[in-house]
């Protein structure tokens, strides 16, 4: 049995060490968009829970959930995009529930990358 002093020491030790370790996210990705000049923008996205440097992690994870992590099947969202040709190369690498993911696609501009990926490439 723990005495009151021992129990208090255990509680304090748990608080000081941050308590129990947090679980790793279900899925994590590094996403990038590279424009025609070669400038690249990177963001991180984790799902389960939705977080990272992605500006809309909840929306992106929801789209990935709908496609069961298959970037080629991401749902398109309805939005108007200009017809200005300014190609971007979109890349995703990471894992979806333990399955490795390596995806590359070219879109005619950033707006189309956003629209055709359900918001996953909206950065």
Automatic annotation (TrEMBL):
It comes from the Bacteria. InterPro entries: Prot_inh_I16_SSI, Subtilisin_inhibitor, Subtilisin_inhibitor-like_sf. One of its GO terms (cellular component) is extracellular region. Residues 1-23 form the signal peptide. One of its GO terms (molecular function) is serine-type endopeptidase inhibitor activity. It is found in: Secreted. Pfam families: SSI. Belongs to the protease inhibitor I16 (SSI) family. This is Subtilisin inhibitor-like protein. It comes from Saccharomonospora cyanea NA-134.
